[in-house]
Specification:
Number of domains of chain A: 1
Largest sheet of chain A: 5 strands, parallel
Number of helices of chain A: 8
Strand content of chain A: 5-15%
Shape of chain A: globular
Structural class of chain A: alpha/beta
Distance between the termini of chain A: 49 Å
Oligomer: homodimer
Order of helices and strands of chain A: EHEHEHHEHHEHH
CATH class of chain A: Alpha Beta
CATH superfamily of chain A: HUPs
């Protein structure tokens, strides 16, 4: 069993890109996986390609999965993305942009890839601070997945086991941005908007844009993002 | 929350087809899900369609997923399927036909579908007796998945929770066949072979054919399967 390879889930947003930079800084050999899951915008996928390239990742697997046929989320079905919500509104309840069981599906694929590549770690940029409403971003979910993963796999039964690392779980967005900036991550390559106007141009009003803006403002790092609407946060 | 709908994973083999018959006998509204996961034979998928039809299932979701790009299994990559092995050989170690994290991926999709359809049960035909070598068929895996699923989802956090039912876990193949026969399941529609000669014609020598033959022999039910090789079991 090779013990120096890790799988990293990369969407192209701030959290997963920073998580990739952390894994890279630990000197691991990396296999990066990005999902084309029928999201309404492809900017995320372009961002993931650019970020992986900027960190010299050689093994980048793109997995096409179709969650649109299941419906029930503003990110994959024709439901209106909420705009201009306050920080308090964003932090309350499970948002409409929640994609059912998304992180479970992503981690399940990462687990298959870990078995195939003989990797013993999976990094995910799950964060429980800004997105407290997503049940599958919480540390108790990550721990339960890790336990299940070690009962599900050859690596868990016969090998050294699989660890699920979510290094950003308890970081605020500002702390994440400060950490990534120390690691020389180029945030102009990342993309967060739920409802972009065109490739690389963010709406500036959706929950994800508002959280991103506030994160940069609080971090003291200059925000390199191109927004259409310059709402104050 | 509707509490009378269940998701059933259906491959078209004996175990999942019997599990569907059990769920049906409980009077639930059913959503059946079948995966086209790049397996080398499509007979399974045809069998699944026929079985679901014979049980009057109205909501049958086909999900295409590509595990071939991950490699590392005789069922999805060009590795030779073992033939003519003894019951003892079949029961030892993790077989080459193991697909990494397959049940984890299947259950993750079923979980997404359960959220989308507001179902509160997922039925899976996992069996720990004949396939003791597959880590993700064991009851401890199913229990760990259920625990994780309830931390991952809206249903787990805000609703009535999700139960993962694996009613055949501790049944022998003969017991499964006897139960399905009592439920009037037509086993001539099911398909098990790992290496079929053509649609509906089983090799008769792979582990799956040998387990199937032995199951029918021990159950006392006439085996309706068309095998090329009539190896004694």
């Amino acid at each position: 069993m090779k013990t120096d390879r890790a799988i990293v889930l990369l969407s192209g947003g701030i959290d997963s890109s920073t998580t990739l930079a952390i894994a890279k800084s630990q000197g691991k050999q990396l296999t990066v996986v990005t999902f084309d899951y029928g999201q309404r915008h492809k900017c995320e996928i372009n961002a993931a390609r650019n970020i992986a390239g900027s960190l010299n990742v050689e093994d980048h697997v793109m997995v096409k999965i179709d969650l649109r046929q299941f419906g029930n989320s503003a990110l994959t079905a024709p439901i209106k993305v909420p705009k201009g919500r306050s920080a308090r509104e964003i932090g309350t309840g499970i948002p409409i942009t929640y994609v059912p069981a998304r992180n479970t599906i992503f981690l399940a694929y990462a687990l298959a890839l870990a078995e195939a590549r003989q990797a013993n770690k999976i990094f995910i940029g799950a964060n429980a601070v800004d997105y407290s409403g997503y049940p599958d971003c919480r540390p108790e979910f990550i721990q339960a997945f890790e336990k299940m993963a070690n009962l599900a796999t050859k690596a868990g039964i016969e090998g050294n086991g699989i660890a699920i690392e979510a290094p950003l779980t308890n970081f605020s967005k500002a702390e994440i941005i400060k950490l990534g900036t120390e690691l020389k991550l180029d945030y102009s390559l990342t993309f967060s908007c739920y409802d972009p106007i065109e490739d690389g141009l963010s709406c500036g009003e959706c929950d994800s844009c508002l959280i991103r803006k506030r994160g940069f403002a609080e971090s003291g790092v200059t925000d390199p993002t191109r927004y259409v609407i310059k709402l104050k946060v």
